Amino acid sequence: xxxxxxxxxxxxxxxxxxxxxxxxxxxxxxxxxxxxxxxxxxxxxxxxxxxxxxxxxxxxxxxxxxxxxxxxxxxxxxxxxxxxxxxxxxxxxxxxxxxxxxxxxxxxxxxxxxxxxxxxxxxxxxxxxxxxxxxxxxxxxxxxxxxxxxxxxxxxxxxxxxxxxxxxxxxxxxxxxxxxxxxxxxxxxxxxxxxxxxxxxxxxxxxxxxxxxxxxxxxxxxxxxxxxxxxxxxxxxxxxxxxxxxxxxxxxxxxxxxxxxxxxxxxxxxxxxxxxxxxxxxxxxxxxxxxxxxxxxxxxxxxxxxxxxxxxxxxxxxxxxxxxxxxxxxxxxxxxxxxxxxxxxxxxxxxxxxxxxxxxxxxxxxxxxxxxxxxxxxxxxxxxxxxxxxxxx
Length: 393
Description:
Blueprint: H1 10-40, H2 45-73, H3 75-92, H4 99-128, H5 133-158, H6 161-180, H7 202-212, H8 215-227, H9 234-251, H10 255-258, H11 261-280, H12 285-299, H13 302-311, H14 319-348, H15 350-380
């Protein structure tokens, strides 16, 4: 069953709003971070890379802490911890510690983002109901992408990195205060985390999600540079990519609940592969914008299809750990994809990075086929995939 937006509870939408505010603050400081480190703090280009990269390293490690924390202490306390760290990170950027202030801010922000997302994703699935997990995660992604997209605009409007850092502090603090008023109907003592928290197909799910996301650092880092020689359509293409993702996850997030996740997953991969190949050949501006939009449209579905499938096999006491584990695959593959894309672009030119992103989709398809085949086998046998009770929130 798929609900219309007004049929979700006020608690559900409060969690979405708090997520938006958390990621709005994160997005606000991003445009000014590199210039702040380079010019205000006197760091080198290498230092800029280290400051930006430490976020992913900390976030990756923190996934393995945030998941068990959400299962043992609750989704709300994990979410609040994440927002608190993001708020303190905004202040850390302003401390008179030189480059150390930037590192401290990014470390706190990496840990905060890991807790924020794990708590939010697990909570909205339970508030919306397991049968509507795809739709719930779609709305959550809309909040995340909305915050990340609006953040740079706010940061530019504020005019300085100091103001942006203060805004991040206040934005996360407001979200913290609002969320603290929301009641959580989850008792960790009733949902004991099992010793083997990984449900059947967990590794297939994680690897398939990882390979799908290899394209992201390619687009984020090299799309504008690549298309500069083909009509300079990079900014418009990237805007189309982000806008289509945001729109699709907001309005089409419920499709994995109504359509077979397998078909939707492979349909998404097909759109992504087509978009990446078109971009690799250096198309004219109109085609480049279309290809980027097609890439964003396809990218809107694989995560929710995989998450919906794997969460139906997961007991309530393990869901935080599973969400955290799947997110760790994202961090690892995005980080690895960044290094690989940089090496290939330097050695063989920008198109090779886009070809790499398309090639990774083949590995994702092969691995995901095993994940979805297992569900098909269960259904054909007349069984239900590891039945799990869930409160409807």
